Amino acid sequence: MTEVSSPNSSSTPLQTILGEFRNISPETTKAVIFKEDGEILACNEGDTAKDRAKNLAAAFDEIANHSEVIGGVENLTIQGVNSQINVTTTNGRYLATVSSRMADEKRVKALTFVVLPTIIKLMDQIVPSEPENEPTDPPNSEAEKEKETTKPPEEPKHTEQLSNPHRMLSEQNFPKPPVNQFMVEKIAGLLVASDMVRVDADIVAKWVDLYGDREISQVNVETLEGRSVRCKFRPVREADSKAKGIIQIPERILQTLRLVEGKLVIVKPVIPTEWEEKR
Amino acid sequence: MSSKSSPTQTETSLTNVAVISSSDADDPAFASLGASLVEIRKMNGVLGYIIRGNSSAAFDLAEGDKITQFAFLSYQLCESCLEIAKQLSVATIESALVEGKSLNVLFVNVGENKISVFMEKNIDHSGILKRVLI
Questions:
Q1: CB distance A85–B73 less than 8 Å?
Q2: What is the rounded average pLDDT for all residues in chain B?
Q3: Where is pLDDT greater, at A104 or A278?
Q4: Nearest alpha carbon to residue A94 among A115, A112, A68
Q5: CB-CB neighbors (< 8 A) of B88 in chain A
Q6: B93 phi and psi, to 5 degrees?
Q7: Among B109, B82, B97, B22, which residue's Cα sits nearest to residue B57?
Q8: Which residues in B12-30 are b (16+ Cβ under 10 Å) and which e?
């Protein structure tokens, strides 16, 4: 698994998936994902000639053009003397694999006709929603108390994610939510909502830049001891310049997290997936 | 079942089978495959077949009014499979299965003879393939 002729936002995961094809089914000698115009999105062999992909797409389309009588083409399997070819199309992309006749046919078909088309469909739902720029943590001034650190993607505490594979897949393709560390400040008063924290407005603005249309309404606040809570948030008023690097937390949440003023917490925005937004 | 004739072609009708062949055609392989296909056609879920040789062709299709569409698909299937195999460096094609949304088509390449068997989706094509190749 080496070459990708024209990497783009979706080719890297596809390339990775094709790499896994060979691990799962070592008898699969060739696999190529390409567009109708011959652009190769992922390929597990050195030869990535555009003309070849274009010819493959045209040949498959010729069958599809005459397939009204059978309700249109879903998949094509060609058996040679020692090899078999599987071709399928999903959302304007084609996948062709060549495998040995010795390969487990069910496994090859499952990979070609089920797994990859499903992944492509999922990616199509996710990729257009991604912001064009990869997330970059803007530099912070030394005066600010916050320091941004990247946490490993695994968060065993959030076991709810494991029960929803769709959401897991979606989130894996988002830019990683930036992780910010804040110092806790207690907030109280008649107008203070007990279930809402207040976060530095500059940080909130960065989240909005990063995730565009996705409405971020919640944050995950985690103590250094590992206790965490998900709650609503709002930016701290701009007039309050002392709010840099500060998170203002009401009494009730402080108690839940067993926190006191002056402690440090890690704050991450909760990025809703399309699935969640539709709910 | 459609029927046509021309000075260079003769057509015979054996039950539901239409055979189109050149006057001097005498291909034992074609005849043998044709006999197998007549038996296969009797299977539940098999909707028909087209066999095309160098100088002869025969078909038996449940939906005779769609013979043109089936014939185009059969021809295109053969041509496209050859092209796809060539592009992917697979030397010889033995068979191909097109899974359509409503029907499946099994294409079998036996020497000079190209066979397309149209069947319902729940039919095991490998059993048909074995019977063709016997």
A1: no
A2: 83
A3: A104
A4: A112
A5: 30, 56, 85, 96, 98
A6: -100, 130
A7: B22
A8: eeeeebbbbbeeebebeeb
Write out the residues of chain A at the interface with chain B, using a CB-CB cutoff of 8 A: 30, 52, 55-56, 58-60, 62-63, 65-81, 83, 85, 87, 96, 98
A12-19 contacts, C-beta under 8 A, 24 or more apart: A13/A119, A13/A123, A13/A173, A14/A41, A14/A42, A14/A119, A14/A120, A14/A123, A15/A42, A15/A43, A17/A42, A17/A115, A17/A116, A17/A119, A18/A42, A18/A43, A18/A44, A19/A44
pLDDT digits (tens, 9 = 90+) for A77-98: 999 988 999 998 887 888 888 8
Q: DSSP assignment, residue A251?
A: H
pTM higher than 0.80: no
> Of the ranges A1-15, A111-125, A213-227, B31-45, which is most confident?
B31-45
To which residue do tokens 């069958």 refer? Answer: A63
**Rounded Cα gap, residues A256 and A268, in angstroms:** 18
Tell me the mean pLDDT in the region B55-63.
Answer: 87
